[in-house]
Amino acid sequence: MTSPLCFSTDLSQEQSKGHEWILSKKSSEMSLFYRDIANSGLIEIRATTHFNSSLSGFILFFQDSENTKNWLENAYESQILKKIDANTHIVKTKFKGFWLFKNRHMNIKSHYRQNEDLSLEFIFENADDKTPKSLESTSNSILIDVISARWLIVPVKNNNIAIEYNYIVDAKGDIPHWLINKAILNSTWQSLENIRRQLPLSKWQSSTLSHIKELD
Fold it and tell me: Which of 1, 127, 178, 209 is buried deepest, with most CB atoms within 10 A?
């Protein structure tokens, strides 16, 4: 099976969109890039890596809201507010502030689908949810604007998946963009490192989802 992910540094196609990808950090297993979003001070982030995991194991690990705080950097609480269907959830996540940063939170709708080539796509967007659970304990917290966010998960061999993660968020507040962008890049790298350590050993690796087809 040929992976649709490109792990090379040939970014000519992306440059044609107007802004060149800039390498933030790279290891033998992960790459982290960013590019400026014109006239906004925001950046788009792209991370590529691979994990030892089944597709079902990744989904179940990702949906384990009680464990989110153990891998998502600076998160201290996450809860599923609503299950729309098996593939679509509304989730609230809270992030602790540090130094000049106030606490943040985000309410997102998370939806995934499996494509014909067995790859998975996770799409995230702001959830317009005004239930009491979504509003509680956020009076001293700033709501993050999730402008776009997408995970592409591709099985490359048995129990090995390649990942591409792209997202743009506006953390809001009065912190200079250059400072918060640096913090976001650092937290993205650390979060992926945390997943690399935890996912292969997760209890979810022994579970399967009947509607998800694994690579033989």
Answer: 127
Beta strands (DSSP E) in 70-196 are: 75-85, 88-95, 104-114, 120-126, 142-143, 145-157, 160-170
Structure-block tokens of residue 204: 């979810």
Per-residue pLDDT tens digits for 136-183: 555 678 999 999 999 999 999 989 999 999 999 999 988 888 888 999
| Spatial separation of the C-alpha atoms in residues 31 and 110, rounded to whole Å | 24
Alpha-carbon gap, residue 195 to 155, rounded angstroms = 17
Our count of domains for the chain comes to 1
Evaluate if residue 211 carries a pLDDT over 80: yes
Residue 19 lies in a domain: no
Q: SS3 letters for 29-80?
A: CEEEEEEECCCCCCEEEEEEEEECCCHHHHHHHHHCHHHHHHHCCCEEEEEE
CATH number of the domain within which 156 lies: 3.30.530.20
